[in-house]
Amino acid sequence: MRTHLEQAPAFFARSRSARRTALAIAALFLVLAPQAVQAQRPRARAGQLAARLATPVPMIGIRSGYDFEGEAWSLGGQVRLPVARRLELVPSGDAFFDSERTDWQLNADLALRLGRRGGLYVGAGLAAASRAADADGDSNARLGTNLFAGFQARGRLLPVRPFAEARWTLVDGDSPFRLAFGANLPLRAVLGR
N or C: at which end does the chain have fewer Cβ atoms within 10 angstroms? Predict the structure, then answer.
């Protein structure tokens, strides 16, 4: 029977070839692994970007517009809150400025994003509007409904997402037409997350 010391040279001879094979595989892995990882990175980034663009995120924005019936410019703000994958709750408010007075309107709308990328959207909602009621300039708040259609571009270079919107507000038999435009910013960009 051979002792451990006598078996040692045979073990080291076999283990040297095993070590050389292991070192060769490790060296090959070290050379090829960065290239494989680098080749996968653009796909991973593209997949992450596509998932981020497809997933609705809460946004806050400013908007301006023009009321063609009242011949007044508007300035306001809005928040876009995802309810479902293609459905958003959009509370907003606008002030309308003409030469004689300032009117206001508050909206609670639902927007449905259309298409694969969701840039186009349509929606409807409720409005509370203050309009001049008589020649003296007295105003009162009235309830109505909104119908709108718009397009929100994707912020590819910056997180800002510009939009343009056509809007009709039906209040007491009137249906003024408005064009609105502005920009939304994801809340995570505002909060620094």
Answer: N
DSSP letters, 128-178, are EEEEE-STT--EEEEEEEEEEEEEE---SSSS-EEEEEEEEEEBTTB--EE
Alpha-carbon gap, residue 81 to 46, rounded angstroms: 25
Task: Please tell me the distance from the alpha carbon of residue 27 to that of residue 168, in angstroms, as a whole number.
Answer: 68
The more confidently predicted of residues 15 and 182 is 182
Say what the pTM is. 0.66
Q: Is the pLDDT of residue 18 over 70?
A: no
Contact (Cβ atoms closer than 8 angstroms) between residue 80 and residue 61: yes
Find out whether 166 and 150 touch, Cβ atoms under 8 Å: yes
58 vs 144: CA distance, rounded Å: 26
Q: Which long-range contacts link 84-89 to residues 24+ away (Cβ below 8 Å)? A: 85/55, 85/56, 86/56, 86/112, 86/113, 86/114, 86/118, 87/111, 87/112, 87/113, 88/56, 88/113, 88/121
Q: What are the boundaries of each domain within the chain?
A: 1-54, 59-191
Query: Is CATH 2.40.160.20 the classification given to domain 59-191?
Result: yes
Distance CA 99, CA 97 (A): 7
